[in-house]
Structures are given as structure tokens and as C-alpha cells.
Specification:
The longest helix is centred in the first third of the chain and has 15 residues. It is built from six helices and no strands. The protein is mostly helical and about 130 residues long. The termini are far apart. About 55% of the residues lie in helices and about 0% in strands.
Length: about 130
Amino acid sequence: MCGAYDRWVVALVGRAAELGRIEQLLVAAAAGESGTLLLLGDAGIGKSALLDAAAASAREREMAVLRARAVEAETALAFAGLSELLRPLAPLLGELEPAQAQALAAALGLPAPPPAAAAAAPAAAAAA
């Protein structure tokens, strides 16, 4: 394999095992499988660099990449990280099924999309 993965293996000395696991997850995701990865560790040990490598490799595969960063000042705000993560998806509200559009709007603290507008998109597509 050539590309982002190979570049990051060279750049992240001693992280071949972690990068290999990230690659396994991305290959599985491209095949439609789900998975999770939890990076834990003290500040400065390279967690962000591993995430950068994962994002670069995902983008090379033309996968969508959403990112959010935790901010200590927002720890008391419920779902602050979720809101930051999902905000880039707000322009897609009109393309979602009504239930998903309402859930995304709620997560972003936006008013719920009008039911008629959300339901009109599938009806228009079916008529075409």
C-alpha cells in the first residue's frame, strides 16, 4: 500500500502497530463495517498525530472526515463536542429523512425543519 499510511508510518516512529490498527478500521469501514477506536494517554504522546494520520488516510479513500476537539471550558455544556462534530452537516438537513433531520437539528440546537419540507424531498424523488 502506498499513500498517507506509508508517509505516517515513517513520520510516527514506533507507532506502526497503532497505525496498522487504524488502517484495519478504515479498510473495514470502506467495506461497510463499523468499528471503534479509543485513544488514551497523557498529553503530548501523539494522540493527535495518530488522528491526523487516520484522517489523511480516510480522505485518500474519499471518506468523509468529521472532527471535534474537546475544550476544558465546555465540559459543563452538555453535548458541546457533539455539536462541534456535527455542525458541518447542517447544510444537509434538507436532504435527510424527517426523523434524522429532526435529530440533527436538535443536536445542533437548530429549529426543527418543517415537516412538509423534509417529507417533500422523498415524495419529489419518487415522482421523478
